[in-house]
Structures are given as C-alpha cells and as structure tokens.
Specification:
The relative contact order is 0.13. Helices cover 0% and strands 51% of the residues. The protein is mainly beta. The chain has no helices and 19 strands. Strands 1, 2, 4, 6, 7, 9, 10, 12, 13, 15, 16, 18 and 19 form a 13-stranded parallel β-sheet that branches. It has a six-stranded parallel β-sheet with strand order 3-5-8-11-14-17, with no helix packed on it. The radius of gyration is 15 Å and the shape is globular.
C-alpha cells in the first residue's frame, strides 16, 4: 500500500507492520516508545522522512526489518532520522540480507544498526551519517555480517562507530 501525508501531517504508529509499503511524506515515531516491523520492503519518496524516537532521547523507537524467515528486505529512498536515544535501532530480524538502497540516507543523533541473527547481513548502498553534535550512530553487534557499498560519515561533532570491524567488508568504501 501507499502512505501519503502533506501539510505537516504524519503517520504516527505506536506498533505494527508496514508490509510492502511506499511512503510519500512523514512517519513520525517520536511521540511513543514504538516498534514497527517492515516486511517485503519499504520505499520512501524523495523528501520522505521516518523519525525514530524523539530529540530529547526519552522515547526510543525501532524498525524491525523482516522476521525469522530467510526473506531479504530492502529499505530505499528518503531519510531515516535517529532522535536522541541510543536505544533507537534499525534491526535486521532476518536470516537473510537487509539492504539500504542507494536513495536512502540514515542520519541523526543516536542509534544502532545491527543483525538480530548470526545469519543476517546488512548491506549499505546509501548514506549513513552521524551528523549531530555529541551523538553516536553505531553499526554492528557481533551477529552476522555488514557490507558497505555506500557512504559512512561523521560530521558536526557526531561519532560513527563500527562495533565489529572484522565483520564489515569495504569500510573504506565511503
């Protein structure tokens, strides 16, 4: 299905699933401690934003990509923006690949990107940027593998941490 929002309106899920969804607008998970499961991919239009947690860090939020099957997942387009909580996460639930497409930017203050399974794989083809002062975006947690075919960066006093460098291929790719 498709989610459209405009004029400052946003979808604000507390918990649930986005199954093969295209977003043109904003998904705002900054008002609740919420988890949303993404199944069969998520495509966001240019200028679309997915807010994970509030800026003060009191309300974390997570994207749980896939389930325990071996079905690859992809998220592409727009931006996912981490708020202030280091507990906010994008978590690959699959025994397969989670791919961040070339049109996706993941940015913000504090958050984690990791595999929940030793068989999982996170593939970055987009941009992951720790771009907020005193913030940290962490990738890796000793499960699965990580491949960078896009860009990793830190700016404006943000810190980008690769928790398991031995599990990451192509660290110099961006």
């Amino acid at each position: 299905g498709t989610v459209n929002s405009s004029g400052g309106a946003a979808l604000a899920p507390i918990n649930g699933q986005l199954d093969d969804v295209t977003v043109d607008g904003t998904i705002d998970m900054s008002q609740f401690n919420a988890n949303v499961q993404v199944l069969n991919g998520l495509t966001m239009g240019s200028g679309s934003t997915f807010l994970l947690g509030n800026s003060s860090g009191t309300l974390p939020a997570s994207i749980l990509a896939g389930n325990t099957t071996a079905t690859p997942q992809a998220i592409d387009g727009g931006a996912i923006v981490f708020g202030g909580s280091g507990s906010s996460a994008i978590r690959n639930e699959n025994h397969a690949a989670l791919t961040f497409g070339p049109g996706l930017t993941i940015r913000g203050k504090n958050g984690q990107i990791y595999n929940n399974s030793g068989f999982g794989q996170v593939i970055n083809q987009g941009t992951i940027s720790a771009d907020t002062a005193a913030g940290t975006i962490l990738i890796g947690n000793f499960n699965g593998t990580y491949t960078n075919a896009g860009t990793f960066s830190a700016s404006n006093g943000g810190t980008f941490v690769v928790n398991t460098p031995s599990q990451l291929s192509n660290l110099s790719g961006g």
